[in-house]
Amino acid sequence: xxxxxxxxxxxxxxxxxxxxxxxxxxxxxxxxxxxxxxxxxxxxxxxxxxxxxxxxxxxxxxxxxxxxxxxxxxxxxxxxxxxxxxxxxxxxxxxxxxxxxxxxxxxxxxxxxxxxxxxxxxxxxxxxxxxxxxxxxxxxxxx
Length: 143
Hints:
It is a single chain. By secondary structure, the chain is α+β, with helices and mostly antiparallel strands. Helices cover about 30% and strands about 40% of the residues. The protein contains four helices and seven strands. It has helices at about 50-60, 75-80, 115-120, 125-140; strands spanning about 5-15, 20-25, 35, 40, 65-75, 85-95, 105-115. Strand 2 (about 20-25) and strand 3 (about 35) form a beta hairpin.
């Protein structure tokens, strides 16, 4: 591994409020200016679910309840244009309280209908995570 190449662990959440999903517009690289799900880097000694709750609160001011694990995704250097390989652990979550207000490294934050959210997302892996979360939610509601 070269000196400036790094591997990071990120956490994120697909947050539902009724028939809407929460998105943030990234304020910093990578993906600056692009819509995504809230999330960020896991801190040393922090449990994954605690990191997800912290990141959502920092970026949007929202309190969430974590449901289950969606999956593990990767952002390779060719995806981000940086010398970083990020392994992302994404969860499905439900909105508990608050109204989205962009903070920390988010330039904007809002809830969108599922269709509008899919249109705004620019990265296929995030689209896939949101689709998986919607499927999980639908299957849970069918029970």
